[in-house]
Write a structure and sequence with these properties.
The chain is an alpha+beta fold. Helix 3 packs across helix 5. It is globular, with a radius of gyration of 16 Å. The protein is built from five helices and nine strands, in the order H-E-E-H-H-E-E-E-E-E-H-H-E-E. Helices cover 32% and strands 26% of the residues. The chain has a single domain, classed as 2-Layer Sandwich (BirA Bifunctional Protein, domain 2). Strands 1, 2, 3, 4, 5, 6, 7, 8 and 9 form a nine-stranded mixed β-sheet that branches. Pfam families: LplA-B_cat.
Length: 185
């Protein structure tokens, strides 16, 4: 969907959440970016999923989101991991590379993950990741020290990592940035 204002994306999530609860739509993945004042990451995924239908509890769902970002980082030779106790998100050393914020309502997820591909890290000099003062924000570009493929390509790789880890094999891409998913059973 390109760059979308956070409030517009929030309204769209609420609409899709309502439609998913009413079973008017299947599992859907919003793929977008926010202006840097709204989020940590440049690649944002908002899954609108029925946890019951995919057989996951809340903890396992969050772990799968973390693994999605860890797998993407590993494609570029970056060793990312989950944070220490009390440190949400995905980290490379003492630098936060990915954030997670989920909402689950009636067994349906919204919100999701944000992964730093190559944002201007100057925007984040005044952010204290997870309220931990001795931590910093980092990005895939900073950790690799190389020029990356286009952000669109890296974003597509993130979607592919998500689909593989969640067991979705048949993605239906929409021109508006929505991605409907079919799960192999």
């Amino acid at each position: 969907m390109g760059t979308v204002n956070y409030l517009e994306a929030l309204k769209l999530q609420e609409k899709l959440l309502s439609e998913r609860k009413a079973q008017k739509i299947g599992d859907t993945l919003l793929c977008l970016q926010h202006p840097p004042t709204y989020t940590l990451g440049k690649a944002v995924l908002y899954p609108i999923l029925s946890l019951r239908e995919i057989g996951l509890g809340a903890r396992k769902y969050v772990e799968q989101l973390e693994l999605t970002m860890i797998e993407l980082a590993s494609l570029y030779g970056v060793k990312a991991s989950v944070g220490e106790k009390g440190e949400t998100g995905v980290w490379v050393g003492d630098g936060k590379i990915g954030a997670i914020g989920v909402r689950i309502s009636g067994g349906i997820t919204s919100h999701g993950l944000a992964f730093n591909i190559d944002p201007d890290l100057n925007y984040f000099k005044h952010i204290v990741p997870c309220g931990i003062a001795d931590k910093r924000v980092t990005s895939l570009r900073k950790e690799t020290g190389t020029v990356l493929l286009t952000e669109d390509v890296v974003h597509d790789q993130l979607i592919s990592c998500f689909a593989r880890l969640f067991g979705f094999s048949d993605l239906i891409w929409r021109e508006n940035g929505l991605c409907s998913e079919t799960k192999d059973l």
